[in-house]
Amino acid sequence: MFPRVIMKGTLIKKSQQKKRTSPCNYKERMFILDTQDLKYSERRPGKKPLEKGCIQLSRIKCVEIVCTDVPIPCTYKYPFQVFHDTHYLYIFAPDNDCRQRWVRALKEETKGNSLVAKYHPNFWMDGKWRCCQQAEKLATGCQVYDPVGCGSKKPLPQLPDPKMGMQDPEYQMVVALQDYTPLGDNDLPLQKDQEYILINNCNADWWAVKDDRGNTGFVPSTYVAEKFGSNFERFEWYNKNITRQDAEILLMKEGKEGAFMVRDSRQPGVYTVSVFSKAPGSNGEKNPRVKHYQIRQSETGQTAFYLAEKYLFSTIPELIHYHQHNAAGLITRLRHPVSQDGGSSQETVDTAEDHWEVDPQELILGKELGSGQFGLVLEGKWRDKKVAVKMTREDSMSEEEFKEEAKVMMKLSHCKLVQLYGVCINRAPMCLVFEFMENGCLSDYLRAKKGRLSQDTLLGMCLDVSEAMAYLESSNYIHRDLAARNCLVSKNNEVKVSDFGMTRLVLDDQYTSSHGSKFPVKWSAPEVINYSKFSSKSDVWSFGVLMWEVYSEGRLPYENRSNAEVVESLSTGLRLLKPRLAPDSVHLLMDWCWKEKPDDRPSFALLLHELASLADM
Ligand code: ADP
């Protein structure tokens, strides 16, 4: 009898390191679960997938999610484990729903096996189990394994006692920073921005909360923030006992553009953000200097915190997170948290310091490739590599911002991002040295190949971009100008995302202000046009437009309409029409990216997953 396929999809697997010397790596694989085996294979464009591994289901002894506190080094952030023979296979899913589906299906198929009685809920790492510290990989687990139920059997604090853990006789409220889907029976689902009553915060990782219908349960503590709380000690930007003067000394000493901290104001219960900048002030203030912004509370309707009017948040951590990505009224974006007892926590950025400068003597410039926002783009040679060199016009960007942003961009590295090799500062004009992309920009490429692109190619292009964007999303990095013109095509026709972070460097108001003539209105989400509120979800909107460009083979979106007409029609709910070449499944994804509310749009992790499953079909 032939095996019947139960599930398939793209997941990331960690190497099993069966030998001590085998490398630790993370690879994207197509997984297929059938009634006999769990198989995984490598996808190869234009060829049959190559099988890389096969585990007989009868050899599996445990399948369970992994609950962990360690950062996950690949783009998919939801791990689960398959323990078979004497090996642990760690697999990463793009979202929790997908992980639950795999774990449930695998448990169902293996429930008749000879299973472990206990398992390890956390990773085996650096020679020991992170859950119980045992140093023997095959040591018996530390938590009871449930072969049917799906979820974490985490050590829970005592049953919620409404009086315990509450310092204040009044209720302490928390606000959900993001959605949470329960992993076990004792958990409570969270809905972003909803408020909950905090019942118990004795356990550092899991807090007990109650929702407005009286249901109680546990939630991860990092998913919520105390509404009126001052318990910010877990955040690196908070300094408890520091005077205004000491804060200034510390920040001036740090001397980095955007070095900042949050401290207690003299007024009890009020907080101040202090931030260092070298940027020239509009009213002749001396620079460099430290500016102090009090975090204000508006009492209209719901309590809301803000630094700059228009940008209201229900908690202080949310407000700080937002201004870490957007200056939005502040003198500069909050770039480097500084704390009294550790200096800047961004030291890692500086370790790259000597690697990001390109020696002008090593760089040979060649013919012109095109011209862009900052000036000319030239072909070049650097250390025997063909490169693209973006020259900057003297007046097109601020030098300080340029260096800071270039350092961040250097740290971003993914096979679907056009790699920045370094910057040349000690020559005028300054220039950026990029990986060379033989086939030029995606919009031109699409137009040139019009009528000759297969469905697989079109989908593959969207998939490439979604991979890069899922990586940027997981790095908390916002692109801000995603469009086909800002993607490039390699020699092997792979599409890579370029120009990430470049808009921040542009000084031209026509480009950065949503009212400017060069602002990419037709690619921008409504909240960006109306309030300059950039986020990964505003990038998702632009990605929807990019998919439209791909399936329209390089046509301009809203071809015959002005920016003002586009804004008007978007507000009445109108959207770009389905391109002739787009299958319904792809058009549905586009429409999903163009939901009015950012939270209703999918994440890039989810888009990547959806596109990958379309590619598997
Ligand atoms: P900007 O983003 O500054 O407006 P672009 O990135 O659009 O500039 O670059 C202008 C042109 O230069 C592109 O259309 C493309 O043809 C060429 N180009 C830019 N970067 C590269 C690269 N890494 N490899 C090859 N060509 C490039």
Describe the secondary-structure layout.
Elements: E1 5-14, E2 26-34, E3 37-42, E4 50-56, E5 60-65, E6 78-84, E7 87-93, H1 96-110, E8 118-119, E9 124-125, E10 128-129, E11 143-144, E12 172-176, E13 195-200, E14 206-210, E15 216-220, E16 224-226, E17 238-239, H2 244-254, E18 259-264, E19 271-277, E20 289-294, E21 296-298, E22 304-306, H3 316-325, E23 336-339, E24 343-344, H4 347-351, E25 363-371, E26 376-382, E27 385-391, H5 399-411, E28 420-424, E29 431-435, H6 442-448, H7 455-474, E30 487-489, E31 495-497, H8 509-512, H9 526-531, H10 536-551, H11 563-571, H12 584-593, H13 604-616
Helix pairs in contact: 7-10, 7-13, 10-12
This protein binds adenosine-5'-diphosphate.
Adenosine-5'-diphosphate binds at residues 369-370, 372-374, 377, 388, 390, 418, 434-437, 440-441, 488, 498-499, 502.
Report the CATH C-level class of the largest domain.
Answer: Mainly Alpha
Termini separation (Å)? 23 Å
Number of domains: 5
Residues in β-strands, percent: 25-35%
CATH fold annotation of the largest domain: Transferase(Phosphotransferase), domain 1
Major sheet strand order: 4-3-2-1-7-6-5
Helix content: 10-25%
Unreliable spans: 151-170, 343-354
CA-based gyration radius: 26 Å
